TrEMBL record:
SUPFAM superfamilies: alpha/beta-Hydrolases (SSF53474)
Record protein name field: Alpha/beta hydrolase-fold protein
Similarity comment text for this entry: Belongs to the esterase D family.
Pfam families xref list: Esterase
């Protein structure tokens, strides 16, 4: 289309100042670098506040903590917006933890999210215990001190992040009130997560596990792994834990997460008007 004609069309549509348009950003967000007190590693932490946060200055909010911030934050922000604004679910503070500063995202997540060292991998593995300490002693205290939060919190992990979320549930179940475990990499190091000891939860805890139906045939039998993980949680995590397993029809590993986060937030934070 010739440039002059394009300008005329844009002008007719009422978007004549395209060259000076502001880029879209997620509303009410701020990013800080938080340094691990022990390792000195730094991670970007992005906080998105709910719409009513500034006006209702006495109100406190649950917190949803996301791993893999680079992709999980835009998806979760978009998926939760209408649900929160329409009153379908509670308003929440979203906290998204990015990858270690100065390290590639792939190397950061593979090390931080894997509970066991596996020397068969070319990249370094087995840093989950260290990363969990970072969340526990640095990220959570910062959020709780600087923002109006309730005691109700949720950890969200997908793929290797789902493996990490399961590891956290097994070792520090009371650190979060709820766990959203998407397409968990149960297969890592020959299903070693299924052999872990489980510390029973001391508080009421909701665990939402989701996996794409088509992930079973993508190489790692992810549906079978998710089912075994759900069964282990139900059997060993104690009576205070409620587990919900959802196999998403027609979904692959690359497409399951938007459905996972939407359905899980609705299940955990749904507002009951009755």
């Amino acid at each position: 289309m010739p440039y002059l004609l394009l300008v005329i069309v844009i002008s007719v549509l009422g978007v004549s100042d395209v060259s000076h348009a502001e880029p879209f950003t997620l509303p009410r967000t701020n990013t800080v670098l938080l340094k691990d007190k022990h390792t000195k590693n730094e991670y970007p932490i992005t906080i998105k506040l709910p719409r009513s946060y500034q006006k209702q200055n006495q109100k406190r909010y649950p917190v949803v903590y996301l791993l893999d911030a680079n992709y999980s934050l835009p998806i979760t922000s978009g998926a939760s917006r209408f649900m929160m604004n329409s009153g379908t679910i509670e308003e929440v503070i979203i906290v998204a933890v990015g990858y270690q500063k100065g390290v590639s995202g792939l190397n950061s997540r593979i090390y931080d999210y894997t509970p066991f060292e596996d020397k068969n991998w070319q990249r370094k593995t087995g840093g989950a215990s260290q990363y969990l300490n970072y969340l526990k002693h640095t990220v959570l205290p910062y959020i709780e001190a600087d923002f109006r939060t309730t005691q109700k919190s949720t950890l969200v992990g997908n793929s290797l992040g789902g493996l990490f979320a399961a590891y956290t549930l097994f070792t520090e179940p009371s650190l979060f009130s709820n766990y959203i475990i998407g397409s968990p990499s149960v297969w890592f190091k020959e299903n070693s997560i299924l052999a872990m000891a489980v510390k029973p939860a001391a508080n009421t805890t909701k665990v939402y596990i989701a996996v794409g139906e088509l992930e079973e045939s993508e190489g790692e039998k992810m549906v079978s792994g998710a089912r075994q993980l759900a069964a282990k949680i139900t059997k060993q995590s104690g009576a205070l834990v409620t587990t919900n397993l959802f196999v998403i029809p027609q979904a692959r590993h690359a497409t399951a997460f938007p459905t996972t986060i939407t359905q899980a937030l609705d299940w955990i934070y749904q507002v009951n008007d009755n």
